[in-house]
């Protein structure tokens, strides 16, 4: 019995990157805010590059609270979508040219989202990582942490509950 030869690492990386790009580009608001995602293996870090339009209080200056909340919520939803796709990406069931909105699962819908503003967001790049605490067929719970210069010095954190999209039994 012969084992299948592993795929070249570049092919796997391209498939992962194409799936992530399709997931992110499917939500125009992510592009409006300028949020990007840094992927290392299965781990995603959301990156919010600083832009003047993100300032809420020019006297401090500080990031707008709504921008902070949206950044955390986007990080949570993309992490959930990514975790839903991971097995299909790794098994090669999502091909390079096929990673588009038609084949990608619908994103989860927010049930509730609670943000803790721990300190002002400074006028600089921000980063966030989401951790899926529970993900079932109907419901998911996600915790997100955001920081700027120092990972151990959070400026905001959030917990969200999401309604998972129905699986197609096609």
Automatic annotation (TrEMBL):
Residues 62-160 form the Acyl-CoA thioesterase-like N-terminal HotDog domain. Pfam families: 4HBT_3 (PF13622). InterPro entries: HotDog_dom_sf (IPR029069), TesB_ACOT8-like_N (IPR049449). This is PaaI family thioesterase. It comes from Sedimentimonas flavescens.
